[in-house]
Amino acid sequence: MPNASNSSSPSNQPNPDSIPVLLLKTKSTPHDGYEEYFLSPARTYTYEPIFIPVLEHKFDEENLRKVRDLFLSGALKRKYGGLVFTSQRAVEGFSRMIVEEVGQALSSEASRHLALYTVGPATYRSLDTLRTSHLPHATLAGKDAGTGEMLASLILQHYNNNNNNNNDLERNRLAAAKSEEGNGGGSGNRKLPLLFLVGETHRDVIPKTLMSAELPADERIHVDEVVVYRTGVMESFREEFRSTLEKVMGDDDGDDDGDGSRRRPVWVVVFSPTGCDAMVDILGIAAARDGLEDREASCVQVGNNRRRRRDCYIATIGPTTRDHLRLKFGVEPDVCAEKPSPDGVGGAIEMVMGARAEEKE
Asked: Against a cut of 0.70, is the pTM above it?
């Protein structure tokens, strides 16, 4: 399975010696960073990336119209000093609304003195494209912020510094917003709030950090959240995951290397807690949790599925999904990416594969 030839097999002729990587996500278009990573000839091993869509996203049109109206009425710059994004889907809904319903003239004017914050390179690139075409005066930060914690820390420094350097401008904007509801986030705080566009299920680390009572009053940043999309599990996911897994793993009594392990492992990359119940059920790896502490349960596996679990490795894109598997199902992933990116996930997988190869030597 080492990529001796440094070339990947054509997509219509799967390499029987390649390592299947089941990516539980919808393939991004026109390019997907995970596909590019695993098919790159720079990889040590030959991989076969397989996308299995899990989530079905539906935009909250009513709430998106509320955001749209802030732009159309000119109220955005009186009420908010910036927008925060932590998901690609939120950026997509916002971008569609700006392009199709607001237009260049109004959005360009609204972008004056507007800060845009995003978590990581993927959402940064998407938002930067929109900034170039429709929000030319906005500042954009967060390209290297791989987690909500990192982004919250960046916002505290960046937004507070910007406001300290623009006191006259801020006083004028706050004077115009004086009669508006929720204009300052509390007594002694002279900053406009931030508007956080989120999905129905999301972490609250950013608003908690920015509005923490432990911060000095003049450093706190008020955050208003608006749900712009809702997420559910696709009806087709369970059956598609089951059939794909059976195809790449074959029968449980298949050939092995003589040491009880298969000739090729299978990786499952999990991007969200949503859909984990179906994945865990099909893999048959939920721990027998009754009477066990969380730490003990994370080490337990159902006996009848020991072999399948050994041959099927699990990688999570970050700590939220890792902790969900640990605490709800007693499942310990094999790796958790340090950064939620193709390099972060792929690099962790390559390290495990290298260690596995050394053990067999």
From this structure: no
Q: Are strands 82-85 and 194-199 parallel, antiparallel or unpaired?
A: parallel
User: Phi and psi for 187 in degrees, rounded to 5?
Assistant: -60, 135
Q: What is the DSSP string of 123-157?
A: HHHHHHHHHHHH-TT-EEE-TT--SHHHHHHHHHH
Q: At what angle do helices 237-249 and 276-283 cross, to 10 degrees?
A: 40
CA 333-336-267 angle, to 5 degrees, is: 60
Quick count: other Cβ atoms within 10 Å of Cβ 183? 18
Residue 62 exposed, middle or buried by CB count within 10 Å (0-12, 13-18, 19+): exposed
What is the tens place of the pLDDT at every residue in 48-94?
A: 999 999 988 889 999 999 999 999 999 999 999 999 999 888 999 99
More confident residue, 254 or 16: 16
Q: Mean of the pLDDT values across residues 174-188? A: 47
The two three-digit tokens of residue 169, written as one number: 């401008």
CA distance 353 to 348: 9
Mean pLDDT of 1-18: 52
Q: How far apart are CA 293 and CA 305, in angstroms?
A: 21
DSSP letter (8 states) at residue 355: H
Query: Quick check: 150 and 68 in contact, CB under 8 A?
Result: no
More confident residue, 86 or 13: 86
Q: State how far the alpha carbon of 345 is from the alpha carbons of 112, 204, 269, in Å.
A: 37, 24, 8
What is the pLDDT, as a whole number, of residue 281? 86
Rounded to an integer, what is the distance from CA 157 to the centroid of its chain? Answer: 23
Q: What b/e string do you get for 82-109 counting C-beta neighbours within 10 Å, with b at 16 or more? A: bbbbbbbbbbbbbbebbeebbeeebbbe
